[in-house]
Amino acid sequence: GDSWMNLGFSGIQQSLVEASGQRYRTYGVAGTRLLDEVIPNQYVSAKRADPDIKTVIMTGGGNDIIQVPGLRDDCAMMGAQCAMVVTQILDRLTKLWDLMSTDGVQDVVYVQYSNPEGEDVDFSLASGDSVKTRCEAVKPPLRCHRLETLDIVMGDIPDGIHPSAV
Prior knowledge:
Oligomer: single chain
Radius of gyration: 15 Å
Largest sheet: 3 strands, parallel
Shape: globular
Helix content: 25-40%
Number of helices: 7
Strand content: 5-15%
Order of helices and strands: HHEHHHEEEHEH
């Protein structure tokens, strides 16, 4: 995943290790994208290190929107360019989850983004297609779980992108 997983000094990776006291292999890197294959390649690297992966906790897709000039504004207006990129994000997530299923991964936890306006980000389209619908349709044996973060983050996104470390 991206900076929600690992912002360097804070993130989901660090929180998992601290809260659980367990060891986790961590591959998240701030600034990464799904559509340029960096996030999918994080999974490939994890599989190469140990192919017996049971659970994947991930983010992905946020930077594919916010790092493209003008795209965030287009998404706020539900524009055509945004719909095209969101479709690509959903398709790439589906392809990655299909690979995980084929590899025998049992569970993927997709951590959804929240925004400063107090909304969960589901990458949903007017057609009803969304992370939720794609997650519900994963191929067995994989089970997909979405973690909505709005109640956890509660609008505490000081830089407009990342939740505070508190």
